[in-house]
């Protein structure tokens, strides 16, 4: 009797659900996935090389283009690294503002995640709803820095400009709105039987596997490991705020979804506390016009929306960094893709791409 | 009021033709063609109206405006613009495809979708062919739309299309069974497979949606699956297999798939109306109004499904058909049989 | 206006009269019949002659459907619908799908061996089969369908559920066994 | 809180691995290790000292030599930590490599998570990893020549592509 044959399906780089220009080589037996190999680099712009030929301050806008859905967090990470290298003390008010905008951006990024997961599972209405609410955050950012996508708001030594009372007022209003729209998603997505059955028990990952792939962010928290740099490192003013690290239990797509869903509430909590305790004072430290950090190197990591975002900067004492390496969470998380897809169906692979939540700008750097 | 029925309109057309031709026999022949033209006209109008309706319903569900530029504030001319766009698009023929099979697929797909319109009773006495095995013939004809999908999927020389073609077969064959069995309950109560008899039986007593609620639900679900609409649109599943069998088609060929999809959407709405919602019957208003009101309501329901549900997975969908719907339909049929037997012996 | 109408009426009446004198009704009937027949026969020929086995399978479906149309044309829509549903809707699809799933290097020349020996063998076998069938059908005394059957569907149902209930059920059981057997075999192949 | 590894722990390392070097002057001294002892050191760090997370793998081109940089983190309470921000120790391990033929054993046998990052280093810096399961270019395409993150990398002139015009010439 003739045997069956496996075949290769190239999902991407032009495919509606690979979130940009990711290409995944699926080895298939019928509809069953035998292996999934991510192939990336279609969006490689050489940001690490570019940063070597810019001064430290000029480098900040490049980080906007890494994870362009949560630019604030990238600015934050890079500026922290440079400040650590140059020994700049950031004023308290600036730290508070940074935390506020970074957490707001985390909410926006998680809303994009929920929306894109919904549309990948065929519920395109879900996406429209989350994008509607993300719009409010973008409006807030528009108010604070005049940009809606690539902010370049957090600068070395502080923030670009102080927040206006109008921003604070509107942010409070937005925070009141958060539970309202989250309830709406609960109705349209979480309560849906089909949505549940598409995610529960799919792409299961044990703690050990997640650790061995060095996954970070919501992906590792979904397996039950409370690994959150905000808590673990306690950088910036995060230790002053009361918030929980949301964890899952089974490490399946449902948990990955739920972790992000609940993190929105936690982020909202942080924003509220930061707004309540926003101190007076300068919003920018005294940074020399020509920044020449002393010779040395630094590895600084922050919790980006997709996981641990690390900046490794080597300074040779000149105005430009000698070498910058960016540890991109999406890039490292991609190692888990094979484990998340193997043994499941084509339909689950789409959910897995979504649940790992890669952003190609960040993966390819 | 009496003059507002489709039958009256047909009579009027007939009298005009008779006046011109002056021959009864030839007029009858011409009237057959008029009927055919009316059926095709319904399909084409439906495609235009339903594309617009779908866009608006979708926009309504998704808190946005929908078409609002072409043709005034409500974008009424949007379907025309869409049509022009589709017609002026380049006809891309994929490399290495099986040319003949590939070109035939959209045309053949449209045939069964259009053909079943001949069996629908639109109003009192307005039915193109009132066959005594109407229900059965209808299911038989609509089952023919599987092969064109498969042909398109196979001939496109694309793996996505091929997976889509394979899925079509699995999906349509599995959902045909519960669909047939859910309709058998209606047929058993009526005692006839003639479409007009089924409508008449509902006019005498109650709508079958009250007598056969389970069958109604099963029918709605399997009809959604048969027409490849969310939550069962795994055939054209854009997030997994791009567009399934349509992935390689463009321009007018794609428009034919599109047309067939809307023809199918309308036809399942008409079927639901005919089998479960009492066809054209209703108080006060002429039949044709009732008929289209019910049909459009059903169309709205199907669109509602589409824009609120996520998509199922292929294995979930198949096991749902074989493990839930089919046994349920069989049990429903058994109880209907007992009920009909008891009712008849009591009478 | 009236003059024009009269002219049209005249032409129409002349045309109808001529058609009647030429026995147009029978002619049309026959031509529809022959058209459907040729569709079926040519499609069947195509099944044999096509080089691409998938095309053969698709033409087989066309042939099935042509035959189904013939049934409907001969006033037995039930048999026609059965033909559509079973042959056109299920059997053909399974054949086509099985063929499509089997990979070959060159789909354009995928049909069976085209050597002269094979063709001659096939011709002899099919000729013999054709002979048997035609002799059988010529020798059978066909009866008019009895009026007591009435509506063909109810008649069929009555016969199947009363007189021929046993063969009907036996056939059903047989099909069930075949189905389960196929499932078992397919499952086994998958595991190995 | 994030702290760097203590001086006594470093002294312990020095005792264990004699070839290990570090600058005692610096506040956060990087541990230099020869390439052939890297794997032993990393397994020791992982198994004995609890550095279970290989957070970052990268390399720097110092024109005369390459430097592989590994950042390891020891997060003590992996499963129990819920609210208490706890000790989080880290260490930098560095390996100096020859500029002509940079070869280093792959650390994937100790930390399997380094697979993609090592591929990235191979791709952009041109360092060869022995024992890597799947060493291919990851961000650039297969036919690319050169390693862009090297300081001496010169971008090749873009290939001359003849312009296709409507007339066909």
Automatic annotation (TrEMBL), chain A:
Residues 120-291 form the NADH-quinone oxidoreductase subunit D domain. It comes from Schwartzia succinivorans DSM 10502. Keywords: Cell membrane, Membrane, NAD, Quinone, Translocase, Transport. It is found in: Cell membrane. It comes from the Bacteria. Gene3D superfamilies: Cytochrome-c3 Hydrogenase, chain B. It is a peripheral membrane protein. It is an enzyme of class 7 (translocase). One of its GO terms (molecular function) is quinone binding. It catalyses: a quinone + NADH + 5 H(+)(in) = a quinol + NAD(+) + 4 H(+)(out). Transmembrane segments: none annotated. The gene is nuoD. NDH-1 is composed of 14 different subunits. Subunits NuoB, C, D, E, F, and G constitute the peripheral sector of the complex. GO terms for cellular component: plasma membrane. SUPFAM superfamilies: HydB/Nqo4-like. Signal peptide: none annotated. NDH-1 shuttles electrons from NADH, via FMN and iron-sulfur (Fe-S) centers, to quinones in the respiratory chain. The immediate electron acceptor for the enzyme in this species is believed to be a menaquinone. Couples the redox reaction to proton translocation (for every two electrons transferred, four hydrogen ions are translocated across the cytoplasmic membrane), and thus conserves the redox energy in a proton gradient. This is NADH-quinone oxidoreductase subunit D. Its EC number is 7.1.1.-. Belongs to the complex I 49 kDa subunit family.
Automatic annotation (TrEMBL), chain B:
Keywords: Cell membrane, Membrane, NAD, Quinone, Translocase, Transmembrane, Transmembrane helix, Ubiquinone. GO terms for cellular component: plasma membrane. One of its GO terms (molecular function) is quinone binding. It is a multi-pass membrane protein. The chain crosses the membrane at residues 33-53, 100-120, 126-151, 172-193, 205-225, 254-277, 289-308, 320-343. It is an enzyme of class 7 (translocase). Belongs to the complex I subunit 1 family. This is NADH-quinone oxidoreductase subunit H. It comes from Schwartzia succinivorans DSM 10502.
From TrEMBL, chain C:
One of its GO terms (molecular function) is NADH dehydrogenase (ubiquinone) activity. PANTHER family: NADH-UBIQUINONE OXIDOREDUCTASE CHAIN 6 (PTHR33269:SF17). Keywords: Cell membrane, Membrane, NAD, Quinone, Transmembrane, Transmembrane helix. It comes from Schwartzia succinivorans DSM 10502. This is NADH-quinone oxidoreductase subunit J. Belongs to the complex I subunit 6 family. NDH-1 shuttles electrons from NADH, via FMN and iron-sulfur (Fe-S) centers, to quinones in the respiratory chain. Couples the redox reaction to proton translocation (for every two electrons transferred, four hydrogen ions are translocated across the cytoplasmic membrane), and thus conserves the redox energy in a proton gradient. It is a multi-pass membrane protein. Its EC number is 7.1.1.-. The keyword Protein biosynthesis does not apply.
UniProtKB/TrEMBL annotation, chain D:
GO terms for molecular function: NADH dehydrogenase (ubiquinone) activity; oxidoreductase activity, acting on NAD(P)H; quinone binding. Residues 31-157 form the NADH:ubiquinone oxidoreductase 30kDa subunit domain. Its EC number is 7.1.1.-. It catalyses: a quinone + NADH + 5 H(+)(in) = a quinol + NAD(+) + 4 H(+)(out). PROSITE patterns: COMPLEX1_30K. Keywords: NAD, Quinone, Translocase, Transport. The keyword Transmembrane helix does not apply. Pfam families: Complex1_30kDa. It is an enzyme of class 7 (translocase). NDH-1 shuttles electrons from NADH, via FMN and iron-sulfur (Fe-S) centers, to quinones in the respiratory chain. This is NADH-quinone oxidoreductase. It comes from Schwartzia succinivorans DSM 10502.
